[in-house]
Amino acid sequence: MNTLEEFEQLSYEFYMNTDQESRIKIEDQINNIISNLDNTVTIIEILENTSSPYAQLLSITILKKIITNYWNKIEEKQRLDLGNWMFTFLSDQGLNLTNVILNGLSSLYGRLLKISWLEDQKGNEKLLKKFVPAFFKGTAEQYILGLKILMQITIEFSTIIKEREFLLRHRKILASFRDNLLLRIFKIAINSLTQEEQQQDYNNTNNEITDLKDNASLDLIISVLTFDMGGLNRTEEVDGNDSFKVSIPVSWRLSFKYLKYTEILFKCYLSLFQQQSKDTSNGINSQSQNQNQNENNNNNNNNNYIQNERTNERGAKIFRSLGLLASSKRGVYGKKPGRQMFLNQLIKGICYILENNMGLVPANNDLIHEFTRLNDKILLHFSLNDLEKTEMLQTWLSYLFSLTLKWSSDIETKGALYYLGTFWIKATFQLELFKTSSSNNNNNMKLINYIREIMSKISQTIITYKCQEVTKIEIDDLSSSFDEESTFLVELRALRDLTKIDYNLTFQFIIKNYDILIEQCYNNLWNEITLREISLLIIIFSQLISQYDKRSQSNNFDDLFSTTMPPTNYIQNDKQNNTENNYSSTSTFKFNGINSNNNNHNNSSSNNNNSNSKFQKKTLNDLKLSTRKMDGELIMRGIELIKWNEEMISNNSFPSRIEILEFSILSFLKEFLNVYINSKNEELTSLSNVLSNLLSGFENHTDVFLFIFKKLISNLKTKELAEKIIAQSLKLLNLLFKSFKRMIDIPNLQETQDLIKNHNLEIFPFLDIYTNSSNPVANNFRTTFYNTLSKLVFNERRQTVFWEKFEIFIQPFEKAFFEFDNLLQTLNHNNINNKNKDNDLEFFSNNPKYTIQYLGLIKDLRGIVSQCNNSHYFSHFFHWIYPKKMGILNQIFAVIYQIPKVTENYFNLLIQLCSINGKNSAYVNSSNRIFPISSPNLYILFKFACNILYEYICESLINIDPNLIQEQITEKAKTIALCYKLLSTIIFCKQMNFGVYKAFNDDFFEKTLSVCFKLSDYFPTDTILIYPKLAKAYFRLFEVLSKRLPSEIIQLDEKNFKELFSQINLSIHSKNTKFYYKACNIITRLVVFYLENYGNRFLKNEKKISLANTLHQHFLNNFGNLESIFNQLFDLVLYEYKLEVSNISGTLLGLILLNDQLYINFKNNMFDTVLAKHQKDLEVLFTKLLEDVDHTLSKRNQDTFSHNLNNFRYHVREDGILF
């Protein structure tokens, strides 16, 4: 970088070049520039002289990196000069910069101010004194520039600088900036809106300047209200969470004129539609005006406003600002009347906008989105007890109800309708609470009746909207639309909450429309759209019956509103208004299936013609108002639909299983199972008794079980069935066995015995299709299937019967092992060091079917061994598989271990075999199913697994190229994690005495442990946390070692021990609980060993004395890491609000007992950061922190310290000492 032209070329290539190799070289050049502090002056000169936006952006980025990384090396005079230059450059050149460059430079200035804030706090607090004459006393353009710079500075202060800031420093800067400048910045933004409101003239030529100024002011208001007030390192919208409260400081209360600010924001919005509101009022007052002319004028006005994108953007920002004010915590309003006044003003302003329809048109998408969110937030943060005292509550609800009905038919307002839907759902919950607390006040009863009436209509509107929407979904999108986590289904589930208001009316509406559709199906008048609508209604059935238990908890749920309105007999009203079975005349639902007969499938087969007589469909006139009866009717219709669907498939009336219909049926069966099984008394629920009266053929639990069982098995036997249907069928089959295992003797049913005998690939084709699937869910189909199927075998307590079943069950696997044995004999493969291994690998590469068969066999065995839940079953399985069959698996693995899926599944099988509880991990020490201590099989199994692990690691490490280590680690991260996990599983077993191997001079365990330790040499210190599974397994291994074999950690050389503590330090700073709790356990256990053995005069064990001395030296060599760990843990205690102190208090106490200098240093640093008036209080708190704490890590001592630490944490926060 010798000239300006070279730097401009470099910056252009950096942003525009897509070649990977070239980018690496360019990044190296840029890193060289950043690493040299002397380049700062050169970069400033480039920024002043270049006109290239690429060069400007890159120079800003480089300056930001230099300031962040090398601030401590910059002299004080240079720091002042740098700050003055940035301010001058922004004020002189800011108007000539593009928005991107201006934002970048403003953010750079904010970064400099933040880093230097504590060094010159008084000087930085005078920032606004510099801003006012430079920006806010000049032209409108300069005013806008000043607002934009302040916004970027505010955002920069709210963002933690990960490269250099600890949370403690970040929060201290936040508190100082918040208390000294933030409120003043907010007032500047609000005042700029006020000035515009006074001076605004929409007929002049300065509209564009006005728009820019208002937008900049609103952006600044939003950045202030979303400022991280408490230093929690989060924003207002974490994952779209509107329940987040804006933490406006209570200290702002006296000067925070929330009523004035709300009024200003509403006036700013109304001024956008000043002309529209004028036209509206004129139309109201002049009755003689031609109605058609009014409509044309309104349409023209709307078109004009729709075209104004700036209006849409600014209106959205105003509503977002109002929503943030509505989300603020109660303290900012002062006493309760202040909160009520704010709410009155907010509701009144919203009603005025709704009454005049100001800007609420579909094309203003952002505006209506934020408007509906504003209403949603009001109901979220204010209770109905607060809202009932407002002057226009019913008017507000009435307008929103009309808006919901209007938007439900407009596809362009779908996003806004979602927020209105959640608004009404919140109203449902609020209404129940309000009903409980409202005594017999007549006004309250009227309000309850009014909301109840609205909600019953809203539920019908949303059902209708969803049913119409499902008919518009393209065939290719159906699968994703009905995915468990899709927005479509998430919104649909909200219906079950809406039914709490009037379940009877919602039930009647759904049943009426369902019966029309199903009658078409029984008469063979169905088409694709009909089946879609039926599928949707069945899913709605599922959502409704899922609430059965909650409805049943109330003895008289139908009389929830009995004190306000007598129950309405909707069915009798229906009889008066409609003839029996003639629902279409009054239905508000527009059925595509009824009106489109062109594509109807008229099948003339005799079986189908008689299908209607097989189903005894009950009409609405037969129903009662009992919620249990209504749930029974829903379930009856669902079961009849399943029977009809299976009959149509058996008669080949359907070309194949219809995916959307199958999905809806499985959703229904899942909820039906949950309702049917009563876990408390394991008897038929009252709903089951209702079913026995409604349906024929269901006399006991066995009939219900077999009905569901046959349906699921039928699904699994179908070829080319969608992955989601198979996955859901397997889940339900597992749930079915689990639910009925104590109610009926499942293994001895004829149907289940047939399944034990016949479970090969020919019968269940999905086992073969998805063996090598790239989809993680489908990849585990075989394991899940055999995990479920094995329950029929491994739940047999009679020994002779179990052996017979097991022999029958494993016949397909015996055949598979026999074929692989013949294959190995053909290849003459004897061991892992076979000289012809390359030829064998070529054979498997040329014949991939054998690799797929091998993968399938391993997956099947994983599913089976996971169900060996006691030592009897496990021993029987082990004697079957070892040694011959495990030898066959190992010989094939030695050839094709380079295939990642093979290694992953084979290691998971070994982990299953070595786990003491049959789980996939060694994290739970529950019921023991592995061999007793006296059994030699325990040592044989662990030696076998360790040898495989040792040979695999040696083979893999040989192939690692040091120059490509990052790519190697990325590729092998999952496999390395499995190596750690397998070794952790072996070490975790309490029955295992590793001294036995040493007694016989068998060093296989030491060799395996040694090569596993060497794996850490192949990735840098900061790399492991990039891969969560690898990091979790790594820390788990050392956690288990610290508990079972701490000597193995202590005997690490100085380099590896330091590497371990560096990883622990990074994991704790990552604030990821999956990692740092394990890291804390490692430290605690090592400290316990140290305290028990170091300097113990009574200790006679020379080995322990030597280990304690070695550990002492390790701790001395890692004092820096220990201090960083201690400071971060204390930081977490003080500032992480959700942290359980007891989880890390033992580690903190251990570090204090290990080296009290850590505690003293932290204490002194904390005294330096608090105000002088708090230092006495802080001294008292530190004294109480170690009260009644002795020099041990006993459980009692840890509990005492944890109690003291909680008290310390509480008082430091509540007494205002924290900042």
Individual helix count: 61
Termini Cα gap: 45 Å
SS-based structural class? mainly alpha
How many strands appear in the DSSP assignment? 0
Radius of gyration: 36 Å
- Proportion of beta-strand residues: under 5%
Give the overall silhouette. globular
Mean pLDDT: 77
Residues in helices, as a percent range? 55-70%
How is the biggest beta sheet arranged?
none
Uncertain spans: 197-205, 235-240, 275-307, 553-625, 679-687, 829-833, 918-927
Task: Offer a quick outline of the entry.
Belongs to the exportin family. Helices cover 69% and strands 0% of the residues.
How are the SSEs ordered, and which strands pair?
Blueprint: H1 4-16, H2 20-35, H3 39-49, H4 53-70, H5 76-93, H6 99-115, H7 121-125, H8 127-135, H9 140-158, H10 167-199, H11 207-225, H12 258-272, H13 274-285, H14 291-307, H15 309-326, H16 336-355, H17 365-381, H18 384-387, H19 393-407, H20 414-436, H21 442-470, H22 478-481, H23 487-493, H24 495-498, H25 503-522, H26 528-545, H27 548-552, H28 570-577, H29 592-595, H30 606-609, H31 611-614, H32 627-650, H33 659-676, H34 686-694, H35 701-716, H36 723-740, H37 750-757, H38 766-769, H39 776-779, H40 781-789, H41 799-809, H42 811-827, H43 837-846, H44 848-865, H45 871-881, H46 884-896, H47 900-914, H48 936-958, H49 965-988, H50 995-999, H51 1004-1014, H52 1028-1044, H53 1046-1050, H54 1054-1069, H55 1073-1093, H56 1102-1117, H57 1119-1135, H58 1142-1154, H59 1156-1169, H60 1175-1185, H61 1195-1214
Helix pairs in contact: 1-4, 2-4, 3-4, 4-6, 5-6, 6-9, 9-10, 9-11, 10-11, 10-12, 11-15, 12-15, 12-16, 15-17, 16-19, 17-20, 19-21, 20-21, 21-25, 21-26, 25-26, 25-32, 26-32, 26-33, 32-33, 32-34, 33-36, 35-36, 36-40, 40-44, 42-46, 44-47, 47-49, 48-49, 48-51, 49-52, 52-55, 54-55, 54-57, 55-56, ...
Protein name: Exportin 7
Biased composition (Low complexity): 282-307, 595-613
Domain Importin N-terminal: 26-92
